[in-house]
Amino acid sequence: MWNLWHGCHKLSAGCQHCYVYRGDAKRDVDGSIVVQTKNFDLPIRRKCNGKYKVASETFVYTCFTSDFFVEDADKWRAEAWEMMYQRSDLHFLMIIKRIDRVADYLPENWGEGYDNVTICCTVENQACADYRLPIYRAVPIKHKIIICEPLLERIDLSSYCIGEWIEQVVAGGESGYETRPCDFDWVMELRNICVENNISFWFKQTGSKFIKEGKFYNIRRQFQHSQARQAGINFK
User: Fold this and answer.
1) DSSP calls for 182-225
2) Cα–chain-centroid distance for residue 121?
C-alpha cells in the first residue's frame, strides 16, 4: 500500500463509520486533518544500488486512508501524478468518492488515461449511483471498477450499460460499530447483472450485520471476508 497522504473526512451519509477515524482515535490523532505521509515519494525512492525500492510489476494501493481527490491535497496531487507516470512499470489503484472533481484535476499528459492507473468509484446506495456513475463514465480512465461497499441498500445498475465500460463490480457490507445491515439479495442482484454483462464480480465481505433468506446474522470482523468467499458467487 502507498499512502500519499493521511486523513479522512465523512464524505457522505453512506460512509459514516470510517476505519481511519477509529484507528486515529486510538492513537490520539485528528483524522480530519490531511497531511503528507512519510512515504509520499516511496515509488521513486532507490536503493544504494540504484534500483527502485518498489519492485517492478508491484500492485500499489494508493491513498487508501484518504481520498486521492480530497480538496486538502490539491497542492500535492501534481507531484503524485508525476510519480505514477514515471513508474509506468507499477499499477496504481485508488478508490474515490469525489468523482465530480476528477476531470478538473487530471495531469496534462493524461490523454485517455494512464495504462497503469485504475480509478474505482464508490456507490453505496442508489442516490450515489445515480449521481456518480454518469460522471464516472464520462471521465477518461483506462481502468474502471464500481465499488458497492458499504452496500447499504438495493442498487439497480441496469440502466448504466456497465458491460461497455466497467471491468469489475465489488460488493460488501459495512464493518465496525453501529453498522447498517447488508442483504444477500442485494449482493446477488449485483452479481447477476455482472454475469449478464460478462464482467467480473467480487463479493468482498459480508459486513458486521448480514441478512440472508430473511435471517439476521452478526458476523465478527475476522470472519466477514471468509464468509463472503464461502458464498461461492465471485465471477470471472
Assistant:
1) EEHHHHHHHHHHHHHHT-EEEEEE--SEEEETTEEEE--GGGHH
2) 6
- Ranges assigned E (strand) in 33-142: 35-36, 59-61, 91-96, 117-122
- Alpha carbon distance 165, 183 (integer Å): 27
Q: What is the pLDDT of residue 178?
A: 85
Question: Which DSSP category does 116 fall into?
Answer: T
Longest CA span, the chain:
60
The yes-or-no verdict on residue 1 having pLDDT over 80 is: no
Q: Considering the chain, what is the average pLDDT of its residues?
A: 89
AA letter at 167: E
Nearest residue to 187 via CA among 152, 217, 162: 152
Placement of cell 467480473 in the chain = 200
DSSP string, 149-170: -S--S----GGG-GGGT-SEEE
- Please state, in angstroms and as integers, the Cα–Cα distance from residue 234 to each residue in 157, 158, 161, 187, 227, following that order: 18, 19, 20, 11, 12
The model's pTM:
0.89
CB–CB of 176/149 below 8 Å? no
How many other CB atoms sit within 10 Å of the CB of residue 151? 28
* Amino acid type, 202: W
- Cα–Cα–Cα angle for 162, 167, 172, rounded to 5 degrees: 85
